[in-house]
TrEMBL record:
Pfam families: ACAD9-ACADV_C, Acyl-CoA_dh_1. Pathway: Lipid metabolism; mitochondrial fatty acid beta-oxidation. Residues 125-178 form the ACAD9/ACADV-like C-terminal domain. InterPro entries: ACAD9/ACADV-like_C, Acyl-CoA_DH_CS, AcylCo_DH-like_C, AcylCo_DH/oxidase_C. Residues 7-71 form the Acyl-CoA dehydrogenase/oxidase C-terminal domain. Keywords: Fatty acid metabolism, Flavoprotein, Lipid metabolism, Oxidoreductase, Transit peptide. This is Acyl-CoA dehydrogenase/oxidase C-terminal domain-containing protein. GO terms for biological process: fatty acid metabolic process. It comes from Medioppia subpectinata. GO terms for molecular function: fatty-acyl-CoA binding; very-long-chain fatty acyl-CoA dehydrogenase activity. Gene3D superfamilies: Butyryl-CoA Dehydrogenase, subunit A, domain 3.
Amino acid sequence: MMDMGYGDYQLEAAVSKIHASEAAWYVCDEAIQILGGMGYMRETGLEKILRDIRIFRIFEGTNDVMRLFVALTGLQYAGGHLKELQRAMNNPVANLGVIFGAGTKRFARTVGLSSGPSLSEYVAPQLRDNAALVSKSIQNFGASVEHLLIKYNKNIINEQMLQRRLADAAIDIYASVV
């Protein structure tokens, strides 16, 4: 997003920071695991790397706090769409297009049809199957967010474990396409 000139890239930065710092930790931890007892020996240098990498999950905001930011920002955005639909329902005749579009999308999702954009047209032919899987993941993610907002409404703010799961899913999807 930053590369495309958008000024508001806080969400992208948070997602990237979480993913990169945890991937670095995972890689170093796996390297130590592969080396077994030798992994902690000074000769490998991994004990120092592990120590130094640990701070990345804390600097510039802990990853746990960043996850809450990612989840709540996304929920706020999705909640805005649901409020728009709710306002449209107050005057259905004047907002028939909005209501029909939302109904069509939900019906398509219910019967297993794609209700969102496909990434397949934006990738090389060899990646089309993967792009279809990511598109499906995005669609399922959106449906899950909508379901949770309907179920918990404003009380979603108290559901930190659900927020963490949403943030982790969003981070994984983002990492799949970037």
